[in-house]
Amino acid sequence: MTVHKGVSAAALAATLVAGLAVAPGLDPSTQDLGTTLLAYLAVAQAWNILSGFAGQVSLGAAAFVAAGGYGAGLTLAHSSVGWPVAVVIAGAAAGAIGALLAVPLLRLRGDYFAIGTLAAAIAVQALLTNWDWAGGAAGVTLPIDRIPTGTALFQLAIVVAGAAMALATYVRYSAFGLRLAALRDNEPAAAGLGVAVYQHRFAALVASSVLTGMAGAVVAYQYVAVSPSSVASVNWSLNAVLMTLVGGAGSIVGPVFGVTVVYYGLTRMLEGFQVLSLLVEGALLVLIVKFAPTGVWALIVRAARAVRPSRREVEPA
Amino acid sequence: MSADVLVAGVLSGGLYALIGLGISLVFGVLKMMNLMHGELVVGGAYVASLLVGYAGFDPLLALPFAMLGVALLAYPLQRYLLTGLLRSSGTAPLVATFGLSLMAQAVLQAAFGTDPRALRAPYADAGFTVLGVRVQAVYAISFALTVVLCAATHLLLSRTRAGIAVRAAAADPTTASMLGINVGRVYALTLAGAAALAAAGGVMTGVAQSFTPTSGLPLLLTGFAVMALAGIGSVGGVLLGGVALGLLQSASTALFGGGWRNFVVYTVFFLALSFRPTGLFRRAVRA
User: Fold this and answer.
1) Does B111 or B254 have the greater pLDDT score?
2) How many domains does chain B have?
3) Residues A130, B263: C-beta atoms closer than 8 Å
């Protein structure tokens, strides 16, 4: 366990540093692509922390992408602070909304939690559409000279996605994460052994919200605008679920794999075929829960083990 | 608050109850959150739109066909896909019905386009005045229809052999199946029945308002809000929950304006959840 933990942390840190160092040398289109993928990764990994590791399946990621996107966008449009401060505000805004929603949401278990988050996301979208100060249905355009572009934006995306990966690694290997998993797998038993149910669920929800909100800021900078139909779109909730489930919920590598597969195999390929892409996404969700509930990454790992038998079986006794 | 607003609220509440009844039925019997309920409602409206558009049917004449059509589509989904998932992990049916709702939206968009449609009927915009209170005909009709369908559902569940089988499967599927009840079939029939109710709600919604392939999500949440207000297990409770929601919406529209209409549904939903520590649903904690 400790070896895995050390290796994971070191690999993650090395990837982060390498990414930040290589970023300036890449051409703009690669940087843009990287930013897109990393924003998806941050949202998916944040969903994975809440739903995969802590077992609270959310259909409301869009609410927090919107909170972050609008948090950063409105801050830049209505004040003179710099964009890094706006990212922090985006995380804080999403975290505050997460903490506020925790009051009703954390009374709910299982499917009820999912419905509650879905309602929250739709409510946030309805609120933004009716909120004149936030631009109503048209949204807000960000001041283009004060937002990061190219290398800076890509590096920001690396940091945000890196934070999500780091938190997932922490949750995977820490005692805190073990208690979350215990709550997920058997709440009465975990509570009976002294796990503070509300505190742990609250921490998972708020941490996930903050990360999703910071990813929302990245999206807002990349789009140079925020509107109810972009950052508050139910597509964010859908992608978080789809990408993580395809890769494998409750594993660190799962969302990385899922984001790549879904983005290249689906989002990219079916760009411009909105109806077909919706159909395939829906079918994929059904097929995954029916035939590969642990995700494709777990299937690949299992297949690799089957192809290469362990040493004990090969060597004579 | 004028009497017009109150009456309009009560009558539109009938429509909400009709949408909530199917969700409540499926949840009560199958313990399944059906996230494609909104698409079953919209699907009913589209089936009726075919009959209204090509065969010149009146929407009320098209209604039984829409109910039957959507029920026939729903039956195999439960029989051959969802019931199997109910026995596996906790959230599998939830994710699967979410996936099915997306697929249904895609199919509806491909078949009918994204332009809003409405079901034309002579009573769509008509109204009459009773004791000085203005009443919209379509809402009066849909309220009467809701009462009839609620009563039919109640009688079906309480007075018939099939209803007893459904209640047995709801109370204890294992024992029910040992006593010779085909639980898989009962579940599929329950979803089909809920789909028929949803389609009826869809046809009336289609006459009263316009609809698009993506109208399902707000309708789904309306249904959940009704269920949250009503609790599970009583058909009469659903009717009251729908009326309560209709009154709230009507009052808020009169006070704050139409743009906030849907927002009220979601707020009510959250408040209903917050005020009951274990959630308004009785089985919120499975311990």
Assistant:
1) B111
2) 1
3) yes
